[in-house]
Amino acid sequence: MSRLGGGSLLLAWQLKGKHVLIVGGGDVASGRIESVLAADARVTLISPSSGLHTLTKSFLNGPYNITYHDRLFGGIEDLAGVDLVLTAIDDVAQSRVICALCRELKIPVNVADIPESCDFYFGSQIRDGPLQIMISTNGNSPKLANIIRKKVEQSLPEHAGDAITRVGELRVKLKERAPGVGGAIGKRRMRWMIDVCTSWEMEELALLDDQMIRRLLDDGWEKNAVPSPGELEARSSRQAYDVKSNLTAPGIFVTTLGFVAGATCAGLFLLARRP
What we know:
This protein is an alpha/beta fold. The protein has 9 helices and 7 strands. The longest helix is centred in the C-terminal third of the chain and has 45 residues. It is elongated. The protein starts with 18 loop residues before the first strand and ends with a helix.
């Protein structure tokens, strides 16, 4: 086991609806904007229009929750009601001033290219639907973080994002069917979900739909078992056959009875016409 210490606490920070101030509009700032918009943050951007990157302009012209001020940072009044600050400007002295103000107000801040002025770092990220993976070098080598990210991304199984989405839907349906927090029911839910995720292949999980989820809960959770995808399909086929048989059998009987009755009537008619 490696020695503890010297690392960062990696968190999935929930920024939905939080107010994020970004100072700067260049290349680095455009990446920061993209990251916080992906987390559903409410963004205020302060930067002279002359320094806006093409991607930054596209965000400003798009359907995003961004308030834009075409000017330089104005001082402590720009920090009112702000939950998070990101600076990406070439003015090192101004960046340090903004950092000092943020720390005075207890606002988390990240200053691009000045690690000692950062309360947190931006790592190299992988995103596939709900799946997010961050590679961090703790500010030592962003380029190596990017190289490692590409290697990790190549090793991920296909359809991982879709599989996670479907498993999330299954988990919601399971909680609706077996509600409760903690205790025996919580442990059973956790154990069953673990068994499903380890028994099914990633591609199979990605193909789960509403009907399969319902059958998995009926034939699996309710019976304390984890049927395979093949078993679910086989049971579904048998059920469909039984339903079809029930629907068609009376029809065959009625058709046959109609044929016999028609033949009988025709015979009686012909006999009645004989001299």
